[in-house]
């Protein structure tokens, strides 16, 4: 009876998902939500329900992995708590009081998707943010409540990183992706119920960060690309095998992570790099048992769509790059000139690099170029101040150049002043009078 009911709801969900709107050209996909993203720019090249909040299962572990790498050394030793050891399958089978290196458990986390190692790693990093007493306490002596506090502290780091990346519709509760709900108490005393989940767009954004922007991206790729990994600890030998079948499916397959819970269905996030292009695919609710292979067909279809249709164009290529000769000197009110009564102007130029405080707050990197279809165009627009008021300091922002595709700005260059210009003062006035009337 349970199987019949589960099958009914599975079919119902997929039918409803198929009726939801699709972003761009329509592809036949099994996934309830899907994204194909340009990893370098964060641009969504194809989306289906890409902003719908859904459960994400063990794809969660990409965030767990990158945060552990950024906050700990792979050589660090951690001690297992009873709470971590109590996690449900799939698990490595770690036991209370045992010690492991962070690196060994990261391979366990990403290759075999072990739930117990995810909690052990989260506790190890999270305990540093607890009270001094709990931080110094042996993790093996933690009560279940103390372990949960350490995991909750790690979840705070996960959600903070998500916000830094612009993932406003993502919420982490567990480090392993097991379905969870929590109630938050707000400042005014009201409560808010949150579920563990994300959107396809934001899941793709997180993986793009892991492989492109994180200072630990090389370690992340080394771990997630390993075919297998063996280690010995506590008198036992372990062997982990990578279950990311996509690594052998397409040329250029780079990395990825699978996931499944009864609520989330089959999920996947993966990346492919070919001919200087890096694509990320994220799939949520991509079938339930017995549809385990749906995620692979969807991934292949989306990756091939990107390979066939999107090609790199640089914003600095001839015919696209902004012509700096278009910039004219800006009128400066109350600015000093060589002669009394003349108007003051200051020359301007394109700044080299970012100007502090001038780049729009964005979670996406400023792109040097973009993956585009052949029929797409890059639009370049610029704004420049009409007038300034002295004093003017060299390097002061006075405008911007935007590179736009569709309705999205993908690169911004800052226009700055190229010289200093002092304001009219008493000394300047006296000098002008002397030069004009006294010392002709």
How would you describe what is shown here?
This protein has 440 residues and is an alpha+beta fold. It is 30% helix and 26% strand. The strands form seven sheets. A six-stranded antiparallel β-sheet has the order 1-3-2-12-11-10, sandwiched between helices. Helix 2 (61-71) packs antiparallel against helix 4 (102-111) and helix 2 runs parallel beside helix 5. The model is unreliable at 1-23 and 357-361 (pLDDT under 50).
Please summarize what this structure is.
With 440 residues, this protein is of the alpha+beta class. The protein has helices at 2-19, 61-71, 82-85, 102-111, 115-126, 132-136, 144-164, 200-213, 217-225, 294-309, 426-438, and strands at 22-23, 33-38, 44-48, 77-79, 99-101, 181-185, 191-195, 228-233, 236-241, 253-261, 265-274, 277-284, 311-314, 330-333, 344-346, 348-350, 369-372, 379-384, 387-389, 397-405, 408-417.
Strand order of the largest sheet: 1-3-2-12-11-10
If you compute it from the alpha carbons, what radius of gyration comes out, rounded to the nearest whole angstrom? 28 Å
Oligomeric state of this protein: single chain
Low-confidence spans? 1-23, 357-361
- Average pLDDT, all residues: 91
User: What structural category arises from helix and sheet content?
Assistant: alpha+beta
| First and last CA, distance | 107 Å
Q: How would a crystallographer describe the biggest sheet? A: 6 strands, antiparallel
Query: What proportion strand?
Result: 25-35%
Count of individual beta strands: 21
So how many helices? Answer: 11
Helix content: 25-40%
Shape: elongated
């Amino acid at each position: 009876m349970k199987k019949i009911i589960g099958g009914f709801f599975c079919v119902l969900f997929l039918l409803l998902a198929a009726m939801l709107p699709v972003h761009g050209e329509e592809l036949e996909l099994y996934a309830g939500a899907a994204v194909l993203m340009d990893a370098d720019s964060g641009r969504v090249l194809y989306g289906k329900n890409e902003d719908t909040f859904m459960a994400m299962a063990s794809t969660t572990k990409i965030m767990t992995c990158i945060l552990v790498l950024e906050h700990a050394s792979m050589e660090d030793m951690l001690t297992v708590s009873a709470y971590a050891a109590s996690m449900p399958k799939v698990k490595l089978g770690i036991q209370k009081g045992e010690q492991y290196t962070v690196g060994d458990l990261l391979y366990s986390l990403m290759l075999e998707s072990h739930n117990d190692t995810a909690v052990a790693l989260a506790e190890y990093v999270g305990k540093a943010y607890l009270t001094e007493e709990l931080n110094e306490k042996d993790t093996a002596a933690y009560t279940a409540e103390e372990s949960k506090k350490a995991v909750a502290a790690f979840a705070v780091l996960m959600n903070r990183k998500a916000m830094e990346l612009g993932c406003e519709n993502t919420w982490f509760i567990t480090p392993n992706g097991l379905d969870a709900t929590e109630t938050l108490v707000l400042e005014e005393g009201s409560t808010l119920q949150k579920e563990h989940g994300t959107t396809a767009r934001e899941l793709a954004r997180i993986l793009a960060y892991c492989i492109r922007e994180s200072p630990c991206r090389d370690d992340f790729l080394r771990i997630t690309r390993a075919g297998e990994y063996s280690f010995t600890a506590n008198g036992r030998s372990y062997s982990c095998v990578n279950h990311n079948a996509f690594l052998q499916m397409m040329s250029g397959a780079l990395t990825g992570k699978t996931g499944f819970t009864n609520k989330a269905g089959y999920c996947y996030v993966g990346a492919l790099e070919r001919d200087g292009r890096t694509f990320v695919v994220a799939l949520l609710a991509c079938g339930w048992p017995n549809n385990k292979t749906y995620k692979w067909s969807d991934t292949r279809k989306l990756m091939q769509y990107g390979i066939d249709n999107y090609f790199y164009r640089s914003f600095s290529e001839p015919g696209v790059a902004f012509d700096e000769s278009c910039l004219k000197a800006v009128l400066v009110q109350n600015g000093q000139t060589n002669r009394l009564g003349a108007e003051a102007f200051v020359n301007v130029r394109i700044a080299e690099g970012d100007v502090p405080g001038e780049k729009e707050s964005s979670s996406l990197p400023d792109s040097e170029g973009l993956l585009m279809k052949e029929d797409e165009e890059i639009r370049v627009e610029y704004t420049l101040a009409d007038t300034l008021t002295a004093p003017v300091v060299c390097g002061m922002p006075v405008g911007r150049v935007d590179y736009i595709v569709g309705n999205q700005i993908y690169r911004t260059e800052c226009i700055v002043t190229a010289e200093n210009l002092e304001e009219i003062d008493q000394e300047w006035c006296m000098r002008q009078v002397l030069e004009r009337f006294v010392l002709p």
